[in-house]
Each structure stands twice: as structure tokens, then as C-alpha cells.
Amino acid sequence: MKVQIRDYSCWQYGLDANGGSYGYKETAVLEKGQIVDGQHWTTADFGFCRNCGSFETDVARHQEEWECTKYIPSRSMEFVAKMIARRRGWRWARREFETRWPEAELLFN
Ligand SMILES: [Zn+2]
Description:
Bound molecules: zinc ion
Radius of gyration: 15 Å
Number of strands: 4
């Protein structure tokens, strides 16, 4: 199962690359409710670590210094995985997610 969290609540056309109004996506692969892989993504045209989702001037250096070598799920993604693992179903997970992070969107496929 693939889970995607999208936050385009601040996104604005023309300001989405370097104007401060960026969109964010986080995708995770779940197997039996366990997060096995994933990545962070942004519309911003700056150095960005896809493992932890932070802006970094020098991504390679950040990953080496902080040993940021694999995907680190956000709190909201961990929440979704926990809901799935408890077999509450994706509809329930989405409803719970939306009450906690109303600015974001949760997608399953
Ligand atoms: Zn990182």
C-alpha cells in the first residue's frame, strides 16, 4: 500500500519555486502497517533532503554528517501507519488524519 500526504495549503502559483509558498508531499510504502520505504518532496527550488524533509544548503553534506541515509517518516505519516496497523481501515484513518492535520490531504493507492 502506498500512502501520500500532500500539503499544498501554502502553495501559490509563481511563488512555489523560490517565493515562499511551497507545496509538500510525502510518500510512504506500507507493508502490513509497517513503513518500509518513503520520501519527502517539495515544489521549492532549494536544497531539500528527501529522507527527512528538511531544507539543507548542502544536502550531501547534511546526509553524511547526520547519517540521514534513509527515509524518516513525519509524525503524521507514523500516525497513518499506526491506524492502518490497527486495521481501522483507510476511511477511518483519513477521517482521524483530517481532524489532526486539516491543511493536508491523505491519499491511498
Ligand atoms: Zn535529512
